[in-house]
Amino acid sequence: MIAQAAGLAVLSALSPAALLVAAIYLGSAKPRRMLFIYLAGAVTITVVLAIVLLLVIHAGGLNHPRQRQPRYGLRLGLGVIALAASLVLFRRKPKRPKPDKKPGLIARMTTNPSPVAAFVVGVILFAPSVSFIAAVQVIATAKAGRLTVAGAVALVILIDVMFIWLPLILYLIAPDATVKTLRAINTWLQAHSHVLTVVLLAVVGVLLLGNGIYGLA
Question: Structural domain tally of the chain?
Fold first, then answer.
């Protein structure tokens, strides 16, 4: 259970946008403070979502053994959603930015970094993803004690936000090298973020689809 949930959490954590924002905050006037507040926003929303998902799954009785079909049916549905999103993004080629086009919400909020904006950006970027929902569902429907469930959820949350706390730790150890490396990664991600997002959604979709079909069969 823990290995499966952790694997889904890793896929959820692989967010080009989250790392891009981390790189922006590390280049700000107060990098440690901004990145820590960004992390606080991300952790807050993931903790709240995990608790809500656990409560909803238990309230719906999906954690009971007799609800095997609905459990795997949900994973099958999440897989279909991920694959559909991947296909839509694949068909929708990224447009070249126009000089007169108004920047997006995240771009505007990170242009002039502020503590409140950093917290809100963390909340927005770490809204529930298909793989995060699937990871929590795996935990909630497993036959495990409360301590095991709590530990597994904590691990999933830690993995989900690793693209914030990992750069923060590296920055505290080697600030100059971390900023330089993240800038290089930032440049690469800006050029390939569309392809990465399509591939990640496709991988998540295939895994969940396969797991759902296997469970129903």
Answer: 1
